[in-house]
Write a structure and sequence with these properties.
The protein is mainly beta and about 180 residues long. The protein has two helices and ten strands; from the N terminus they run βββββαβββββα. It has helices at about 70-75, 170-180, and strands at about 1-5, 10-15, 20-25, 30-35, 45, 90, 95-100, 105-110, 120-125, 130. The two termini are about 30 Å apart. The mean pLDDT is about 95.
Amino acid sequence: IWKPPGVKALGMHQDGAYLDYLEPAEMITCWIALDDTSAEAGTISFVPGSHRWTVSAKNRGEFHAPPDWLAPARRANPAGEDAELELAPVVVRAGGASFHHHNTFHGSGPNTAATTHRRALISHLLPSTARFSGRGVDLAYSRYRKRDTDEMDESFFPVVWEAGGGRSAWLDELEAAAVAS
């Protein structure tokens, strides 16, 4: 995700409100800063404790340039919409990372910094046993679903770690090729 100076907000959301296409409907997200971050440059921000709030399709909101990027979190706040919403911006140097649970409200405010670009790489990590559920469709990820199976093809959804030590073999091949070059 790239946010040049002047770019508007990415709305608050819970990834868990969009996971009906997965079984189990859970993930952990790794967010990696490619530039030094600041709240002014629109870094990712979390609502501490929101992973314990109700997850519902009603918590969905506009992602790109919403008029009020905090509205979905305010609506879902068990203390009420008018309660103060605590934000925890992730301020790290380039290469710093954060992880968050799929039920944690997160988003990023507008980039109001005059010259600072904010770029980040995002990876969603699923259980190695995850399957397509057949209950929903995701515009990005469901395009990788094969006909007549709920399997998540390791070509697109590699296993990076399992408790028994396994992972997709092609990752080891890729790592060996990178080391050799």
